[in-house]
Amino acid sequence: MFSKKGHAMRGFFNFAKFGRIRDMNHRPEQTTQRFNKNSIIGFVFGLISAYFSLAIITGPLAAFFSIKGIRQVKMTNEKGKKLALIGLILGIIFFIFGVITVFSWWC
């Protein structure tokens, strides 16, 4: 039943590393790609800057988190690059609109 090294040859259980017991028919679950958290945060801040008058505050936050998310997506191969790009574009555009609006009220 056991080989010379102590591994189960043909049995219901296979003695794996670190003393864990696994079913021989067990297949590891497929890993699903997750969305990058910074990409999602940048996208949400971009939407907030588009719909509320807080674009001067949320626009730079959207740009910051979106750029951080894009860099992490490249390194970790996660999902979320498109969300980060949309957040970056919305953040920059509505930050510029917010600055123009504030200067037009001020002058």
What does this 3D model show about the protein?
The protein folds into two domains: 1-29, no CATH class; 37-106, no CATH class. The longest helix is centred in the C-terminal third of the chain and has 26 residues, at 81-106. The chain has three helices and two strands. Helix 1 (37-51) runs parallel beside helix 3 (81-106). With 107 residues, the chain is mostly helical. The protein has a two-stranded antiparallel sheet. The mean pLDDT is 81. The protein is elongated. Helix content is 59%, strand content 6%.
Based on the model shown, name its key terms:
107 residues, mainly alpha, 2 domains, 2 strands
- Report the span from N to C terminus: 88 Å
- Helix-strand sequence: EEHHH
The overall strand count is 2
Which of globular, elongated, flat, extended, rod-shaped describes the shape? elongated
Number of helices: 3
The radius of gyration is 25 Å
* Total number of domains: 2
Whole-number mean pLDDT? 81
Q: Give the amount of beta strand, in percent.
A: 5-15%
Uncertain parts: none
Q: What is the structural class? A: mainly alpha
Q: Widest sheet: strand order?
A: 1-2
Helix content: 55-70%
Largest sheet: 2 strands, antiparallel
